[in-house]
Every structure is written in C-alpha cells, then in structure tokens.
Amino acid sequence: PDKRWKAYIKNSNVYVSPVDAPEKESVLSFDGSPGEYYAAGMSWSPDSKYLLANRIRPGGKRLLTLIESSPTDQLQPKLHTRDYLKPGDALNQKFPVLFHVAERKAFPVNPEMIANQYSLYGPHWNADSQSVLLEYNQRGHQNFHVIRIDTKTGVASAVIKEQSPTFFHYSGKKFLHYVQKSEEIIWMSERDGWNHLFLYDAKSGKVKNQITKGPWVVRKVVKVDEKNRRILFEG
Length: 235
Known about the structure:
mainly beta
C-alpha cells in the first residue's frame, strides 16, 4: 500500500524487494516446494508492515465421465469428461503464514486450527493493522470458525465458533462485518433456533450482546452504519 515494496513468488517461496531497488530482494519463506508451494494471492496489511500468504498443499484430481445420450448434431452419443472431486477425495489445503517484512519473521497459523478444511476465506484486515481475520469452513460444514491473528505476536485464536450437528448454512445465512475502529464483529447465527445478529468482541471472542432476538428471522443485512451504530436489515 505504501508503494515501497513488491512481493512475489519465486521458487515456490515468498520474496520481497524494494520497488526502487529490485535487485535487493529478500526471501521471507524457506518451506515452500513444488509439492507444497506458496500461492500468488498474497495480502498486505494497510500499514505495509505485514504480509499474509498461503502455502498450498494441492488436493487430488478425479476425472468424471459423462455421456450425452442425445446430442443435437449427431445420432451417436458423445463422451464428455470434467474434473470433479468426490467425497473422501483430498481437497486443496491452505496454510496461512503472517510475515513481518522488516524483521523477516514468519508466524504460521497452527495447522490443527484449520484441519480438514473445505475452504478458507479472507483476509479481513483491521484498519490499524493490529489484526487480520480469516474464515475457516471445515469439511462437512459442521464447524465454521472466525480466526483472528494478532499481528504483533503472530498468535492465532478462534474468536467465533459455529458448531452444528447438521449443517452450518455458509452459502446463504453467513454474515460477517468487521467494525474495525472498535474491534468488533457483527455475526449472523441460528444458535438460538432463529436466524439473528450478534455483536462480538473481536479480541476476546466474547458475545457483547445479541442485537436481534425473537420468534422471527433476519433475512438479509442491507447496511451497517458504524458511525451511528445502527443496522438496516430485512426480516
């Protein structure tokens, strides 16, 4: 963001170099390899002091065969193939690492906190670069956690934990809004039997209060007015 540094991938690892002196490059990671490589989708903190990158362990590949029985341009059937992983096949796994660029320090997230992941969303940076949030969806969709990484210490903790014996509706009923100045999270959950909004302390992970409550559901958050601390929603 301050236009002083450039980050890039080289030999499966993370490198940085000054924009005005690209020959003075430095390597930030040493654990990347062709079988477990760092991806180019990196993210700088707003103050340009930290860099978040993901080391990727590639999943499996499975070719699914389909038969088009009645094609429009010929009488005989057609054979089609596409990539399609099945239950039990290995998925791509991301291992986030926070780098302190000036000190050349690396803080990897504990892999046990993000084990058997279906997906890892984010990052959501704090405006003061004090923390960054990730959304971890475990395979099976019964555990969905919001993980906070403290940039000063590199310590990661799960500040929100959604657990369900059936299914966490991550694709339609998930809402996260990071109130950055006050380090709070507005979160949507069905934990009381209805779909409602909760206010979390982003540092401690404690619920400060339940914003909406009752025998009805929040359908959609239209707008969060942080200045006046009001929410416009459909219910």
